[in-house]
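Async update (no meeting this week)

Hi team, since we skipped the sync, here's where things stand on the single-chain job. The sequence we agreed to prioritize is pasted below, unchanged from the tracker. I ran it this morning and attached the output directly underneath so nobody has to dig for it. Comments welcome in thread, and please keep replies under the output.
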Amino acid sequence: MIMLQAFISSRKLLPMLMLAGALSACSLETEVVNLPDLAPTTGASRMLGLGPGGLPQKPPVVSQLKYEYYECDGLVGDWFLALLVAEMNYLEKQSGVQSVSINACAVSRALNQGQDIPRYTVHLFSSRKEANECVVSLRCQLARNVTLVPREGALWRSYFLSDFYLKNFYNHCLAPPQKWHKDIACDAIPAKL
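Output:
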């Protein structure tokens, strides 16, 4: 009977030990690198042209259960879009993923997801046709997204790159001033106390 209890306990203990080892190997500490100057980090227009309540002044072009999608034109400042594209091109090369010529974009706003401040994501596409296929028809071949994360008195940029067919994906966080947190989303980085 004692041997049976020891066997059962060891069968429960082994998976728990394996899980604890795996979690301890997954440290939230990440390599932080100074990002080179890739494009101007300020400009005459605002990053996002939002109106009262932090909402876009134009109606969404697509409304879904969890997201509303808006056109970039008039919403994303030209200098800010140029910065996002330059950073995305740099991160594509660093991650070893297919480089995408970016000629179109859309902005999504997360709905009913518990944030006090609306959470916006800029979706980058090679063409308007690809944008429509992905946003309207939900047939996305690649993901090149930048989620704007307000935290610690600044706007951090959480980059997500994926090729859905090869099932490769990469997260990177760019925090002011030009700090690149490799292989981690901004929300996963512990706040400074």
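Quick observations from my side:
Confidence is low (pLDDT under 50) at residues 1-27.
The radius of gyration is 20 Å.
Reply here if anything looks off.
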